[in-house]
Each structure stands twice: as structure tokens, then as C-alpha cells.
Write a structure and sequence with these properties.
Elements: H1 15-25, H2 30-52
């Protein structure tokens, strides 16, 4: 079994996410609340990245091949 590699990550979590996680988890420990806040932060970050990486639909009418790959007849 390979050795476990530990990595350190530093993230400034917005207070709103920490409060939302605390409300969601109730009287759980601080580490559980921070873990939930980090998960919420990751979900928001992934959603933002998905929006910025949305496929270009300007050539959607041409199908997958696009106009540049069609033969001129």
C-alpha cells in the first residue's frame, strides 16, 4: 500500500457559507461545520466554472461538424 500523502489547503470561506453550514448541521462540532462550509464553497465554485466553460452554441445549427469542415460542392 503506498504511503498516504497529506496536502494542506488554505481557503477563505465566506462567513455566509459557514453560517449556512452551521444552521444545516445544528449542534455538531466545529470541524463538521467547516467541512460542510467547504463542500458548499466547492459546489458554488464548480457551478461558476461550469458556467464559464459552457460550450459555444453559435454553431449549433451546423451540428457537430460545423461549417468549416463541410465540403464545398
Amino acid at each position: 500500500m503506498p504511503p498516504v500523502t497529506k496536502r494542506t489547503l488554505s481557503v477563505d470561506l465566506p462567513d455566509a457559507l459557514v453560517r449556512r453550514a452551521a444552521r444545516h448541521l445544528g449542534p455538531h462540532g466545529f470541524s463538521a461545520i467547516l467541512e460542510q462550509a467547504l463542500l458548499l464553497w466547492l459546489e458554488e465554485r464548480e457551478a461558476m466554472q461550469a458556467q464559464t466553460q459552457a460550450p459555444d452554441v453559435s454553431n449549433a445549427a451546423y451540428g457537430q461538424t460545423g461549417p468549416a469542415s463541410r465540403e464545398i460542392v
